[in-house]
Give the backbone structure.
Amino acid sequence: MTAKELKNRSVNYRKKILQYIVGANAGHTGGSLSCIDILNVLYNHVLNVSPANFSSPDRDRYIQSKGHTVEALYVVLSDKGFFPEQDLETLCRYQSNYIGHPTKKVNGVEQNTGALGHGLPMAVGNALAAKMDDRDFRVFTLLGDGELPEGSNWEAFLTGSHYKLDNLCAILDYNKLQISGTTAEVCNTEPIDAKLESFGWSVKHVDGHDIEALISTFDALPFEAGKPSFIIAHTVKGKGVSYMEHHVKWHHGVPNEQQYQQALEELDSVTI
Amino acid sequence: MLKDIQVLNEKETRGGFGEGIYAAGKANENVVVLTADLAGSLKLGPFIKDFPNRFVQCGIAEANMIGIAAGLTIGGKIPYTTTFANFSTGRVYDQIRQSVAYSGKNVKICASHAGLTLGEDGATHQILEDIGLMKMLPGMTVIVPCDFNQTKAATIAIADYNGPVYLRFGRPKWPNFTKEDGSDFVIGKAQQLSEGTDISIFACGHMVWKAIEAGRILEEKGLSVELINIHTIKPLDEAAIIASVKKTGCAVTCEEHNILGGLGESVSRVLSSNCPAPVELVGTKDTFGESGKPEELLKKYGLEAVDIVSAAEKAISRKK
């Protein structure tokens, strides 16, 4: 898929994220909009994952540690054909499988996630299993910046480098906002790159909304043989909707009808 | 009669785990072992020596160990996590809840040094709440074997039992009396050690031996004792409990665990719904432990044979 096609998809994904969040009157809007370009490039360019090979032991694995932005994942998985898009009309409803955090009840979801600080240890386990079985698949996990202080992440950073898991890539959706403020105010984790490098990971920064930059960064994996890779993807919470961008209230905010229409107009006016 | 039960030797239940994990690993190449720096305490030496590629040293980072184990289940692997019971459960409850139980992962959480009999290290390490924590998790199987042979048998059996399991055992040498080949252990099936008509005693773990000692005292007093080893706390063999108490009319439960949330409450729940009868609970009474030799602590906290005898006599006296 060309970069232009991917960019068109990102616009479409953003509109669908808003559509289903408005329909459910629930969801994590700002974070879904910040990570969607990353998911777009992962599922449409990087991952060897499709409905056809989802039961293959050799498929790549993607674990969304920041499970609360599940709307972004559902929209991409439906686009990839894992389930009919109309299923998302039941998002967050009673008796729906499409609940507010990823669940394996949904085709295409690898792991139940949502409690923060769980994705990376499981990804380390997946990557270790690949090494044990001498399989070539790769393991990706998306971390939120707000969950970075969870101690289990730092335990897993240690293990990832200890076992030289160069088949593992963690991506940080670094929008710099979490539910109660900026990450710098809540619990400053900077300098993240120096910390990760000192933990034995190979680190690269990227603009998490620049499709070409994401492609070239993912294409460079593993950044160093014998080391796990860490991508600090600089993103904007609420990206693509002017009144949402950089505003923490859209962490869990749902647009009203007028706001929704404005958002669609803004997204439709994007020139690619 | 309980006096007929023969003690084969005295061995640590964790040693049974060590032999069991070696046998399980030899029989099934999907068995993988993780530890948080306690390979020696959990007797993993032979496994590590012969199966080094199936051993994952996680360092002292238990939350990560549970997450890695959940991740390792892909491709049919059967991860066994190993550390002390305290760090196997309370420390990592969220990881077990979300990444293992809720996710239905085939992870075996193997926990040594449970309860007061850990001894000298004291309250920080003597968890008395773990059975409750684990039995409340949907889909979690909870097994508390009574001696070396049974711990070995359970360790082997859970490899072929699909789903998350909590396996709890202990530190000290303890009378070993079940069958050496483990043929008297079946997951979820209570083990009847004596038949009787006056009192049912339900025990798990180390307390099964204490219950045997107590039962012998009661037998000498002319009472007919039905002793049942509830090595599987969940799924509970409810039929065995109901059938026994329908015959005896009263019960005592014995566990090296807080009476809040343990075996006693599970038995009481079954009986209150199916066959109401006097039940006396022997266990720790909503307290932390302390330093001391196992026997000193069991005496102080009311977990000796004489305590079970008193509880039995009280239960019998409460029968209408």
About this structure: The longest strand of chain A covers residues 168-174. Chain A touches chain B at residues 57, 61, 104, 111-115, 117-118, 120-129, 132-133, 135, 151-152, 155-156, 158-159, 162-163 (CB under 8 Å).
